[in-house]
Specification:
Strand order of the largest sheet: 3-2-1-4-5
CATH topology: Nucleotidyltransferase, domain 5
Radius of gyration: 16 Å
Order of helices and strands: EEEHEHEHHH
CATH class: Alpha Beta
Number of strands: 5
Strand content: 15-25%
CATH architecture: 2-Layer Sandwich
Oligomer: single chain
Largest sheet: 5 strands, mixed
Structural class: alpha/beta
CATH superfamily: Ribonuclease H-like superfamily/Ribonuclease H
Distance between the termini: 9 Å
Helix content: 40-55%
Number of domains: 1
Length: 180
C-alpha cells in the first residue's frame, strides 16, 4: 500500500486530526490519525467496551455512560478533530439495529454539542477507497493496514476504525487511495 501522498487539489498543509469510529454494542473501535502535507500518521487506536462492568447489577443506561465517557475522553484529548464513523444501514436483528442506532446517536450528539464535523461512511465505500475494491474482505483490509502502519490490532473493530479514518482522508482528497 505504501506511503500515502496528498493530491494537489486537496493537500492539507496544517495538521488535520481525524477520529475514526467503528460503532458496536459489545465493543466500539476507535482511532486517532492525522494528515499534514500529504503524510498520514496513526497516533493511537483502541476499543471501548460499553457493556463491561465490575458490578453485578446496574441500570440499563450504564453502557451509554461508559461509551460517553470514552468518546468524551477522545474529544477532550485530541485538538480540532473531524469524525468519521462506519455507517451501517441494515442489521440481521432488531436488537443489533437498536444498539447501533443508540451508539451512532451518541457519536452524533457529542459532535453536535462540540461543533465537530462528522461523516458516516458505508463499509463498501471505505473498502473501495482504502483497497480499491468495495468487496474486499475484512481480513484483507486488516492485513494491509497492519503492514502499512506496522501495528497489530487486537480485534476487527480497531482495524475497521483505522480503515474508516483513512477512507475519510482519501475521500477528502487529502491523500491518494489504493490503486489495485
Amino acid at each position: 500500500m505504501g506511503r500515502k501522498r496528498a493530491k494537489k487539489r486537496g493537500r492539507v498543509k496544517a495538521r488535520q486530526n481525524v477520529i475514526g469510529f467503528d460503532p458496536g454494542g459489545k465493543q466500539f473501535g476507535w482511532c486517532h490519525m492525522s494528515v499534514a502535507d500529504g503524510n498520514v500518521r496513526l497516533h493511537s487506536f483502541g476499543t471501548i467496551f460499553p457493556r463491561e462492568s465490575a458490578f453485578e447489577f446496574e441500570g440499563g443506561g450504564m453502557p451509554m455512560i461508559r461509551l460517553s465517557d470514552g468518546v468524551n475522553h477522545l474529544f477532550n484529548t485530541i485538538k480540532k478533530p473531524m469524525v468519521a464513523y462506519e455507517l451501517i444501514h441494515f442489521h440481521k436483528s432488531t436488537k443489533a439495529a437498536q444498539i447501533y442506532g443508540w451508539v451512532r446517536g451518541k457519536i452524533m450528539e457529542e459532535c453536535e454539542i462540540r461543533k465537530i464535523p462528522y461523516s458516516g461512511i458505508p463499509p463498501s465505500t471505505i473498502r473501495m477507497h482504502v483497497m480499491g475494491n468495495g468487496k474486499a474482505k475484512k481480513e484483507q483490509v486488516k492485513r494491509v493496514l497492519q503492514k502499512t502502519f506496522n501495528v497489530k490490532f487486537d480485534n476487527d473493530d480497531e482495524s475497521d476504525a483505522v480503515a474508516c479514518a483513512l477512507g475519510f482522508m482519501i475521500m477528502q482528497g487529502w491523500i491518494d487511495g489504493q490503486k489495485t
